[in-house]
Amino acid sequence: MVKDYSKNYNDLTKLMRELGTKIPDTMKGFNNLHKASMPNGVLPSKTKELIALGIAITVRCDGCIAFHVHDALDAGATSEEIIETIGVAILMGGGPALVYGCEAMEALSQFVVLEQ
Q: Based on the number of CB atoms within 10 Å of its own CB, is 77 exposed (0-12), middle (13-18) or buried (19 or more)?
């Protein structure tokens, strides 16, 4: 079954905004943590997004895969860099990461098509 990662990304974005109205302090704290963690520093944002994607694959989080494939591309990651990140995640996560690595590859193909 192929998932629609663009729809997943958009749906989760909407749900996170809604959740922010119900638990504003928690969501503000999470958003502040994200803003503090992801900008260019010693590691560029692109590298941080690729790390986050590798973690998303190994912890088997569909929504995280959608976000971090999308955001890695936005940060300038190439398809080849994302595929290589999937390979490292498989090394670290074994069989389950292989399955979710395939999910990340599908997300990549969907987002790349949307960019064209």
A: buried
Q: What is the chain's pLDDT, residue by residue, as a tens digit (116 residues)?
A: 578 999 999 999 999 999 999 999 999 999 999 999 999 999 999 999 999 999 999 999 999 999 999 999 999 999 999 999 999 999 999 999 999 999 999 999 999 987 66
CB distance 48 to 38 below 8 Å: yes
What CATH number labels 44-116? 1.20.1290.10
The pTM of this model reads 0.92
What is d(CA 62, CA 81) in angstroms, rounded to the nearest whole number?
19
Residue type, 14: K
Distances (CA, A) of 38 to 32, 81, 113: 10, 18, 25
